[in-house]
Automatic annotation (TrEMBL):
Residues 186-223 form the Peripheral subunit-binding (PSBD) domain. Its cofactor is (R)-lipoate. It comes from Arthrobacter jiangjiafuii. Residues 95-111 have a biased composition (Low complexity). Residues 85-124 are annotated as: Disordered. Keywords: Acyltransferase, Lipoyl, Transferase. This is Dihydrolipoamide acetyltransferase component of pyruvate dehydrogenase complex. Its EC number is 2.3.1.-. It holds the Pfam family 2-oxoacid_dh.
Length: 485
């Protein structure tokens, strides 16, 4: 059987490229069907790529940090025990397993698979595409341990072999350095990426976690030791301290240059598309949030462990407002045949979440079917997934309307950019004490500012103002609104 090459699949939602974060296997490793072989970072998440083939790793097509296009070769796999290895292994990424790992785990012998796995490989070869990363194929063995084929001892011949004619003894080959006894104890993709960007060798760290697990704090401590105190230099930024390059326009020395890729590249393209394609308009209103805060405080006293956060209440009010003003829960499509407005049956409510990788917008699917408590649970789950780099492409790109709580950054208002191709975004500023007139008398109230940015092609100001006023009234009188939901 010849060497088979697995191409980098479409990781979801039409992504065209991915950055290779780290290899999970090395040349010479014997792998099973659905065993993760590489960890890649798309513009939306960190994902592990499983192999559809079983056998021996022959070639790794790419190096950590390299950007690969979808459809380009990722890994080549030879039949188990085969030869033809095309790339030297990286000792830092090797993990030496026990011979006979398949037998230890109860798995089928390497090179064999069940009918479901074989059907998947035939489907992939036929060009029907690959399964979504993270789901694997039926009967997959993604947790099987790897085994290392000996580099120094040739496989025993299967039958008699003719002896070659005597020849001069070749010069002795250099003996390679022995690989480490085991791989660094690090299971977090974000920690591995932080170490790689900062030039920290994981093999030289002693983990402070359970059983020597290397944590993010361990890598950050190593970075702090390596960099001068107070330098403030991010490991992801390339500093030009030795070359003294000069910017031709300003005449100033260039301090650093940071490649725009991954999430930042996608965000930049998305924001540019929004500004270029959407004729946006903005409306805003000051809102007295005192009653909402008092309602939540009362619920917290009654049931401390089951009280939704403020964002969940705001999300519930937004969903109710979109039911009354569905024009804002739509998309403007400009096709060759003409323009059309696509309306949705349901709301996937996106919300902005700040992460170490940048600002992302996970969405609560079918938020219109959820209560405030259910929305709170889903918002917390999606926020944790996004910050851990585990949110799926579908979760990060399926929104129909976005809620942006920039008040957490201590600002009152912002003319936000619409999350293209959506048609509107609602921003919420910080809640602070301000003087406000209540029943003809001046009082100190908990005030916030709502700002709605909308696509003026979708609707006029009357619709946008009606939606914004509905959400504002819900915040000011939450009891009456929630009673109708």
């Amino acid at each position: 059987m010849s060497v088979r090459t697995f191409l980098l699949p479409d990781l979801g939602e039409g992504l065209t490229e991915a950055e290779l974060v780290t290899w999970l296997v090395a040349v010479g490793d014997e792998i099973l069907v659905d065993q993760p072989v590489a960890e890649v970072e798309t513009a939306k998440s960190l994902v592990e790529v499983p192999s559809p083939y079983a056998g021996t790793v022959a070639v790794l097509h790419g190096e950590a940090g390299q950007t690969l296009d979808v459809g380009r070769p990722l890994i080549s796999v030879a039949p188990a025990g085969g030869s033809g290895f095309g790339q030297a292994p990286d000792a830092a990424s090797e993990a030496v397993g026990d011979t006979g790992a398949a037998a230890d785990t109860g798995a089928a012998p390497v090179g064999q698979s069940d009918p479901a796995g074989e059907a998947y490989r035939q489907e992939e070869k036929a060009g029907s595409g690959n399964v979504l990363i993270g789901y694997g194929t039926p009967g997959g063995l993604a947790v099987a341990r790897r085994t290392r084929r000996s580099r120094n001892v040739a496989a025993a011949p299967a039958g008699p072999v003719a002896m070659p004619a005597p020849a001069a003894a070749p010069a002795p080959l250099p003996v390679p350095a022995a690989p480490p006894a085991e791989a660094p104890r690090c299971i977090s993709p974000l920690v591995r990426k932080l170490a790689r960007d900062g030039g920290v060798r994981l093999g030289g760290l002693s983990g402070s976690g359970a059983n020597g697990l290397i944590l993010r704090s361990d890598v950050e401590a190593a970075l702090a030791t390596a960099m001068p105190a107070g330098s403030g230099t991010s490991p992801s930024i390339i500093t030009k301290t030795d070359t003294a390059a000069v910017d031709p326009r300003t005449g100033l020395a260039i301090a650093s240059q940071t490649p725009v890729k991954g999430l930042r590249k996608t965000v930049a393209a998305n924001l540019a598309a929004s500004r270029s394609n959407i004729p946006e308009a903005t409306v805003w209103v000051d809102v007295d949030a005192t009653a909402l805060l008092e309602l939540r405080a009362d619920l917290k006293r009654r049931d401390p462990g089951n009280t939704p956060g403020l964002l969940a209440f705001l999300a519930r009010f937004v969903v109710a407002g979109l039911a009354k003003f569905p024009e804002l829960n739509a998309r403007f499509d400009q096709e060759d045949s003409g323009a059309q407005i696509t309306a949705y049956d349901g709301v996937n409510l996106g919300f902005a979440a700040q992460t170490d990788r940048g600002l992302v917008v996970p969405s609560v699917r079918r938020a219109d079917t959820m209560s405030a408590r259910q929305l709170d649970v889903e918002i917390r789950r999606l926020t944790a997934s996004a910050r851990n780099g585990k949110a799926t492409p579908a979760e990060l790109s399926s929104g129909t309307f976005t809620l942006n709580n920039y008040g957490v950054f201590g600002v009152d208002g912002s003319a936000a950019i619409i999350n293209y191709p959506e048609s509107a975004i609602l921003g919420v500023g910080r809640i602070i004490d301000k003087p406000w007139v209540v029943d003809g008398a001046l009082a100190v109230r908990k005030m916030t500012e709502l700002t709605l940015v909308f696509d003026h092609r979708i609707c006029d100001g009357g619709t946008a103002g009606g939606f914004l006023r509905y959400v504002a009234d819900a915040i000011e009188n939450p009891g009456s609104v929630l009673a109708d939901l």
